[in-house]
Amino acid sequence: MAARTIVLPLLVITIAASLSWVSSSTPEAASAFVKKTISSHKIVIFSKSYCPYCRRAKNVFKELKQVAHVVELDQREDGSNIQDALSDIVGRRTVPQVFINEKHIGGSDDTVEAYESGELAKLLGIDVEDEQEL
Q: Which N-terminal stretch is annotated as signal sequence (predicted)?
């Protein structure tokens, strides 16, 4: 019984330490995460859940009936490191940052402009008949 009493707390501490190691991120890990995410999904939006500009960019893809892979930076412990990595990769630290087929589109205004010009539909390979202004 004494062995179980010692092993269980030790196991809990080990698991907790492992989880904290996984959830924190080095700059290299954040950069690798950004690159892997961009290469693994057709549409990626790096966002913050409370940001109205992010909501606007996400709504563009809803209008087009396209599902984006959204990374909500404010809901991740390593969100700040990911945002720093985005700054290194695209030269901007602001959100949203939108990627389609590994191509950086830009932020909210860039995404809406690409939508309104038809460029977004071309990049996505879809036909859009009645585009509406956002």
A: 1-25
